[in-house]
Every structure is written in C-alpha cells, then in structure tokens.
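Here we describe the complex-level prediction in full. Unlike the single-chain runs in Section 2.1, the two entities below were treated as one system.
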Amino acid sequence: MDKKPTAAAAVTSADVARLAGVSRATVSFVLNNTQAHRVSDTTRSRVLAAAEQLGYVPHAAARSLRAGRSNLVLMPASVSAAGRLVSEWVDDLESELERHGYVLVLHAGRFPDPVSAARAWAELRPAAVVALEGDSLSGPAVDVLSRAGVRGVMAFASREVTGAHTVDFDQSRIGALAVEHLVAQGRRRIGVVMPRERGLATFARPRLAGAEGVAARSTATVTPVDLSYTHESAAELAGRWRELDLDGVFAYNDEYAALLLHALREEGVSVPEDVAVVGCDDLVLSALQQPPLTSVRLDLPTPAQFADALHELVDRGASPQVRGMEPVLVHRRSS
Amino acid sequence: MDKKPTAAAAVTSADVARLAGVSRATVSFVLNNTQAHRVSDTTRSRVLAAAEQLGYVPHAAARSLRAGRSNLVLMPASVSAAGRLVSEWVDDLESELERHGYVLVLHAGRFPDPVSAARAWAELRPAAVVALEGDSLSGPAVDVLSRAGVRGVMAFASREVTGAHTVDFDQSRIGALAVEHLVAQGRRRIGVVMPRERGLATFARPRLAGAEGVAARSTATVTPVDLSYTHESAAELAGRWRELDLDGVFAYNDEYAALLLHALREEGVSVPEDVAVVGCDDLVLSALQQPPLTSVRLDLPTPAQFADALHELVDRGASPQVRGMEPVLVHRRSS
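The structure predicted for the assembly as a whole is:
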C-alpha cells in the first residue's frame, strides 16, 4: 500500500516572483491583499497564476502578521484530556468558532514550564489561546503570547492569571461537592479514585484536595485509591474493598465509576448499601447503570456564549464576561 | 474574574535588530542557528539578549523553512471524531511522537475540497500530516503539502492516495464483518444505526455500504435507522422496533449500542432473542453490558510502530511499511 511521495522542494515566494517576473515584495503585496500598494490588474493576475502553478501557500504566521489577523484558536490539550473531560463541549465549541470564521487547533505539546509552552504555542501565531488547564499558565507566559500577537487568552483556572481572561474552573469544588453529598448521606470513610492514566492527575489532584478539605471540616476521612481504566485493576481494587473498609467513594468520573460499580458487584459488595458511589460528568449512559449512578454535572458557559466572548476579545479587544464552571450534583440510586 | 490583557504590539525581528544594533539578517542567522554565516560571540549574545528582553518568538513557519525542519505532526480531525473513534490510540500516538521530538496538533477546520484543506494545513508548515479520514484527501492536495515542505503524509484510507503513504483503513469492512456475523447467526432483517451527530457520517456511510454489500450476497436485507445519542432518540427507536421488524442490528459503535440495548430492554424487546446487537470499538465497558456486547475490535498498527514509521519518513524520506487496520469480531452474548 505504501508509495514514496514526490520529493518536491518547498516552494517559496521567491520562486513565485521569478516565474511571474516581479519582485518578491510585489508577490507579498498581491498574496496578502495589502491595500497600501497599488499593483496593476495584469501584474496581480500574473502573480496569482504563478502562485497557482507552483502551488505556493503563504505561511500562516507571515500572513497573520501582515494582515493583522490569524483565524486559529489554539487549545493546549491532549486528546484524552479534552476528550474525557469536556469532549462534547469542545466539539460544539469547534462549530461555534467556525461560525465566527475561526479554526480550533489542539496542541498536545508538553513543556517543562509555562513560558516554554507559551513560546511553542506562539510560534503558530494563533489569534487566541484557550487554556483548559489554565492553572499551569503564568503572567510571563501570557506576556510571551501577547508579544507574539495573540489577541486574547482565555484560561479555565482556579485562580486569576495576570493578563488572561480567567473562567473560573476550580476542580477542587467537584471533589468537595461529591464528598459533601456523601457525608450528608451519612458516609464517613470515603475513598477518592486517582486514575493512573496519563494527563488526568492535573484534574484528579485538585479534586482530591477539595474532598480532603470537606473531610477536614467533618468527622469523615478521605483515602486516595489508585485505579487504572482496566477490568483487572478494578477487580483488584474491589477485591481489597472490605480490607479498605470504605463506605463511600468519589470515583473521579462516570467511566471509572461504571468500571468500579461492576467490579464491586462481582465481588458481592452492594451499592449503595455497603458503599455509596459518585461519578462525575453525568454521561448519557450513567443514568442507565445498575444502580443508576449519582454524578457531578459540570455546567459550563455554553459553547455559543464562549465563542461569542472569544470573538469580542479578539475582534474588538473587549473584556468579555464569561461565567465560570458550576458543579451540580445529580442524585441517583448509587448513593 | 475577567481582566483586560495588556495590549502589547506584536514584536518582530526588526525590533530585535534595532535593539541589538544589528541587521535583520543577523538576527535571523543567530535565532535560526544558521551555520553558513559567521557571527561573533559578542554579536550573538547581544541578539539573544535583545530577543529575550523583547520576548521575541520566531515564527514556526519561518524557522522550520530555514532550519529545514518542523516538529509538528498535523492531524486533521475534530475532537469528537478522534475521540470517539480512536481516542486511546491517538493519545498513545502523542506520547510516541514526543519520544521522537514531535508534537501532535489536531486541526479541526472543515473545508469545501481537499486542496483548500491542504492549503490551510500547509500554512502551519508541519513536518508531516496524518489523515484519519484519508478518503477525503487527493493527489493534488498531497502535492500542495509537499510543495509547502511537508515531508510525509500518512493517510488512513480505503484506497491509495497518490503521493501519500496509505494505511489501509476501509470502514466498509467493519460493517461487512458485523453483518456477516449477524447473517451467520441466522439473522435476515438487519438494521444499521446511522448516528445523527456531526462528523460521524464519514465513518457511518462506508460502514453501511459494507453492510449492504454483504446483504446483497445473501438473503438478508439491510435497513438504515437514524439515531441521536440521547435517551429520547433511543426510546423512540425502540418504540418502533416491532413495526420495523428487525432481528439484528449493527449499532455503529459500542456507545450507540449500549444506549440502544437499554432502550430495547425498557421496551420489552429481548436481546439477543428478538434482536441480536453488534457494536464496534470493543470499549472497556462493553463486556459489562447486560447482556455483554458483541463488538468489532479495530486492530491498528501500534502507536509506537506508527510513530517510528512516520519518523523514518520525515527524517530519512524512507518508505515505511505500516500494516492496515484489521477488524476483528469479539463475540459475546448480545448476538
């Protein structure tokens, strides 16, 4: 099935200039629609024909700087983080951004510090950056972005980031809400699932901290329990359940919760009698679990509201008002 | 929570040149590590200090062209398409590419034709393009990418794409395998779920075609049935099941299958007695459905193999051998 691609040398604007018999500057004026310079219609056609013939594509960066705009919205995120956490929201955001003429680009790079990350993102010259993990941003990082021409930074974060528009997204409130509910249900020995999968610790750690904060103000205790997203790991955890002696568990999200529900049932541990289980994300399938799963639903600003705010920020430098994330407990029979 | 960001003008290499008291060309030589030009250590330090002070970030495009390399691997995909179809695979691919020094970037833009798409991708000057939906590529589109300096194009596709390295990924074989299995189980009136969600038609249509191909060679019939990923839509479909009179269904994937399983049970339709159900993706939770769900597992080249092949292609222009996708039926009690 494999076939060696044509080894074509990269085409530059100099090649277009040579073929059209004009200066490189003229090529630039024509291809970037610069209004400040008059180019005759004949010359314009010659340049366009040459560019077409050579298959010349201007650089996004060069073009965005010259035209003063880019249509990229960069979201630093791995597929799994975006996917598991807020997949549908990001998906709808794509459509809403498209309505305003933007294209969403996910950047999966991982970096040793916020400024290195910002430098890498800045190289793509996006119009805006939307940071789902805004707590790993910093003022100096936002400054790098601004200096590179990024017109707006929206950060989902638990604290304000200097220079960025912060959308309140405090993961600790999710763990706190789940454990408040479990305590109100009379549970006192509460487990908090810590997924072993890559990229989830960023969300799991503050959720645990929120859980611990609530426990510290009550007579409940919180025990972190590691879990991989496999049958084996869930069976192993369920097998130790009586020894762990936990009567409530916040299972990170609905997928880990569903896996654990089944493993507990196999082990003869009754839900909610022996242990109350709470998930997060309120997935479509969670109401269909046996027993139906209590879950923390994350109310976010609608993708349409968010896209409108982002556009205001990029287009007019306005300071958009975007409400933060609101965790809401959806009580079902598992707790 | 919102705060207006500092309105910093974009910093250019001309600003760096002015502050360092050197020519723009010298700034370029220093920042791009061009070996062909000798620059004194003093000058080099002055340029680096000026760039640091101004927070200047070179363009990815400019840098990649000058240095002859970019570290971006661009994957045209929406979060939902990547997420639902091959989320874990893409996630692992991110890590494996990182091992070779590449960063995966997902580009969610949608375009009227393959060449427009290729032009937009080419503007980011990636080292390589990995097209999950390779059937929407074309030879001229690959040519646009090559001319823009993209060193390799890997396309998951059902047919060869001129100039690209095709990884066989024929969605029609998934539908064909599911329906072959249902026919072998004695089913004759077979439904094929067509998800209404955005972006899934690209995969659903060839799966339906594969199902129809098998039916045409047997006494079975295939009926497409629309389904949204909501309880309401599933309940509505289940409510019409006796009228539809279908004794087997390929439910697009395991999530739609799980939703339909529950709705059929609510409606008193027995699985597999009244209707056999087959999903796709063999998700971790699918073995835990009631009854456990038959599914088509998609064996792909491992992310490590794929990343190695991509690196060979980009780094040495080698013609990598990558095996295609192999659908495998995992038979459980739902069929």
